Amino acid sequence: MQSLLRTTARQLRRPPTVAGAPIRQMSGASIEEEVKEMNKWRIVTYAAIPVCIALALWDMSAPAEHAHERPAYPYLRIRNKEFPWGKCGLFEMDCPKDGEEEE
């Protein structure tokens, strides 16, 4: 009975192990320090989310300036034959309709 108590006390004094090897804490800090650090970064994250959303809304609210004039390069819009859907490209939005002249 005494040897059982001695063995149990010895096992309780040893650090916990996994398959004979000691469990290693990667940061080397105690559990309390890890919890404190985790809570700090949780607060930082919750504070950063509204800031990021506000910056995104401010950035998206400004009107974007787009150039509406196409450059007059000689290699643009070369058509050797008409497309099956008409004389303009499939995704050209500013294409003149039938009967209208190009600018």
Automatic annotation (TrEMBL):
- Tell me where it mainly resides: mitochondrion
Cellular localisation: Mitochondrion inner membrane
Q: Which domain of life is it from?
A: Eukaryota
Similarity field: Belongs to the cytochrome c oxidase subunit 6A family.
Q: Give the matching Gene3D superfamilies.
A: Cytochrome c oxidase, subunit VIa
Species name for this entry?
Apatococcus lobatus
What is the protein named?
Uncharacterized protein
Under InterPro entries, the record lists: Cyt_c_oxidase_su6a, Cyt_c_oxidase_su6a_sf
What GO MF annotations does this protein's record show?
enzyme regulator activity
Q: Which UniProt keywords apply?
A: Membrane, Mitochondrion, Mitochondrion inner membrane, Transit peptide
What Pfam families has UniProt attached to this entry?
COX6A (PF02046)
Q: Which PANTHER family match?
A: CYTOCHROME C OXIDASE POLYPEPTIDE VIA, CYTOCHROME C OXIDASE SUBUNIT
One GO biological process term is: mitochondrial electron transport, cytochrome c to oxygen
Q: Please verify whether the record's keywords include Mitochondrion.
A: yes
